């Protein structure tokens, strides 16, 4: 039989953080990734913050999850590395023109990424405070990945025989607690108001 983790609501009967349904996770992740890319494209004054944030996620082995988002980000990075334009100072309309030219060779991908190149009125209002959007989007992306790790660790802890593998069970408990604390911190960061 298992002993419940000592850190409160981190075991089988956890009620403090109900897992997000997979559709909800996917939707949150897609929305957060889309917003961060839109901020990059449409808010030149904070592009360096977007790059720093995405690089910080990569340092923690968290990457953009949707292939069309990764594709667009790769095209942006290639434009930057080519030195053809200075992305931190180029106006949004010029960046969009460069991207459209570059993406013309990829009609399949263009249909998925072209909505990111334009803002409707609602999206324009959403990104009026880009620093807040960056913080919330990055936290959301990391939170979804952290939630997946949390579920995995709980499952591994459940499969561990605490009577014979006490050290391993204790290790999982510690990791579960660490993920739980990180999830709570990320939830605070996601608050945009």
Short description:
Helices cover 67% and strands 0% of the residues.
Structure overview:
By secondary structure, the chain is mainly alpha-helical. The chain is about 65% helix and about 0% strand. It has eight helices and no strands. Helix 1 (about 20-40) runs antiparallel to helix 2. The chain is elongated and about 65 Å long.
Name some characteristics of this structure.
mainly alpha; 193 residues; 67% helix
**Beta-sheet strand percentage?**
under 5%
Estimate the mean pLDDT confidence: 82
Largest sheet descriptor: none
Query: In percent, how helical is the residue content?
Result: 55-70%
Strand and helix map with partners:
Elements: H1 22-42, H2 47-59, H3 67-82, H4 92-103, H5 107-113, H6 121-126, H7 130-159, H8 166-190
């Amino acid at each position: 039989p298992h002993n419940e983790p000592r850190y409160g609501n981190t075991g089988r009967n956890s009620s403090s953080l109900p897992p997000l349904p997979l559709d909800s996770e996917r939707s949150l992740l897609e929305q957060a990734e889309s917003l961060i890319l839109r901020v990059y494209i449409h808010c030149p004054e904070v592009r360096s913050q977007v790059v720093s944030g995405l690089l910080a996620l990569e340092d923690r082995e968290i990457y953009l999850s949707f292939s069309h988002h990764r594709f667009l980000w790769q095209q942006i990075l290639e434009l930057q590395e080519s030195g053809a334009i200075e992305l931190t100072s180029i106006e949004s309309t010029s960046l969009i023109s460069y991207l459209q030219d570059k993406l013309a060779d990829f009609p399949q991908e263009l249909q998925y990424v072209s909505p990111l190149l334009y803002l409707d009125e609602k999206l324009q209002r959403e990104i009026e405070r880009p620093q807040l959007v960056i913080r919330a989007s990055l936290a959301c992306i990391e939170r979804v990945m952290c939630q997946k790790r949390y579920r995995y660790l709980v499952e591994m802890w459940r499969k561990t025989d605490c009577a014979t593998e006490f050290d391993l069970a204790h290790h999982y408990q510690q990791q579960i607690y660490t993920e739980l604390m990180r999830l709570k911190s990320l939830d605070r960061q996601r608050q945009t108001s």
